[in-house]
């Protein structure tokens, strides 16, 4: 009985993921973020070329591209994830969705999983382009590029958790997007600065852990396991908090 119930939940989750992916592929946010990522790559390439970065080693070149990733992932979570729950309420599609024989567990985690997959896909594409440029310009790849990519995936997971939490709480997509963007770009950085000012190491803040994405390229961070754990915990705790809010939320 329990096994059948679990199998049914997994099946429903896969159905939600399937239709959520169709929404992504037909929506404008995916195209907008792809264009923004392309713009960041073009600007990074132009600035690196003007600064003579292509004459340096592969590690320095990869560092110049990885330095934009933390902001880019934050932007991706804002555009791609922060509307995934709140849009159902804002567009009133929840009225039809919640009357179907599908559990909120499957709806929530189906949306979260596909949001992570889409985010991971963009991270892979970014690193593939970065690797191609490094190979073309220097003939080699930095040995730390896979480590940096793993940290970027962990940061993407953490940001997806925060974004879906705010999406579960907000009444409008615009509010969820602002909360997601400001939580890291402004609030987290402000808290980290205040802790630094009081001689407290804010290693547990997601923005500090996320800085290891580019720092690891040059081997500047020796606590990579801790930074990875911090980002994953942020994502898991925020995702759980969002699910509790979503379950209690009415139409």
Question: Could you describe the 3D structure shown?
Answer:
This protein has 251 residues and is mainly α. The protein has one domain. The protein has helices spanning 2-26, 29-50, 58-66, 69-80, 86-90, 94-97, 104-138, 145-169, 173-197, 206-210, 212-215, 224-248. The longest helix is centred in the middle third of the chain and has 35 residues, at 104-138. It is globular. The mean pLDDT is 87.
Helix and strand layout, with pairings?
Elements: H1 2-26, H2 29-50, H3 58-66, H4 69-80, H5 86-90, H6 94-97, H7 104-138, H8 145-169, H9 173-197, H10 206-210, H11 212-215, H12 224-248
Helix pairs in contact: 1-7, 2-4, 3-7, 4-7, 4-8, 4-9, 7-8, 7-12, 8-9, 8-12
Q: Briefly, what is this?
A:
Helices cover 78% and strands 0% of the residues. The chain is mostly helical and 251 residues long.
- Nearest-integer average pLDDT: 87
Secondary-structure-based class equals mainly alpha
Q: What does the overall shape look like?
A: globular
State which percent range the strand residues make up.
Answer: under 5%
Order of helices and strands: HHHHHHHHHHHH
């Amino acid at each position: 009985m329990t096994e059948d119930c679990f199998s049914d939940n997994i099946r429903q989750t896969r159905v939600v993921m399937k239709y959520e992916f169709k929404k992504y592929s037909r929506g404008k946010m995916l195209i907008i973020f792809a264009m923004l990522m392309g713009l960041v790559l073009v600007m990074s390439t132009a600035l690196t070329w003007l600064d003579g970065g292509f004459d340096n080693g592969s590690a320095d070149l990869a560092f110049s591209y990885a330095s934009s990733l933390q902001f880019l992932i934050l932007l991706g979570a804002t555009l791609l994830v922060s509307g995934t729950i709140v849009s159902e309420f804002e567009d009133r599609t929840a009225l039809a969705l919640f009357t179907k024989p599908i559990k909120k567990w499957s709806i929530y985690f189906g949306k979260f999983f596909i949001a992570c997959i889409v985010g991971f896909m963009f991270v892979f594409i970014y690193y593939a382009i970065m690797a191609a440029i490094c190979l073309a310009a220097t003939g080699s790849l930095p040995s730390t590029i896979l480590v940096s990519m793993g940290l970027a995936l962990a940061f993407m997971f953490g940001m997806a958790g925060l974004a879906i939490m705010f999406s579960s709480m907000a009444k409008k997509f615009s509010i969820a997007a602002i909360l997601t963007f400001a939580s890291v770009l402004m609030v987290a950085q402000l808290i980290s600065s205040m802790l630094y000012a009081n001689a407290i190491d804010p290693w547990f803040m997601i923005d500090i852990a996320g800085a290891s994405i580019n720092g690891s390229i040059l081997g500047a961070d020796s606590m990579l396991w801790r930074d990875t754990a911090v980002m994953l915990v942020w994502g898991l705790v925020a995702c759980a908090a969002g699910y509790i809010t979503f379950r209690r939320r009415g139409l």
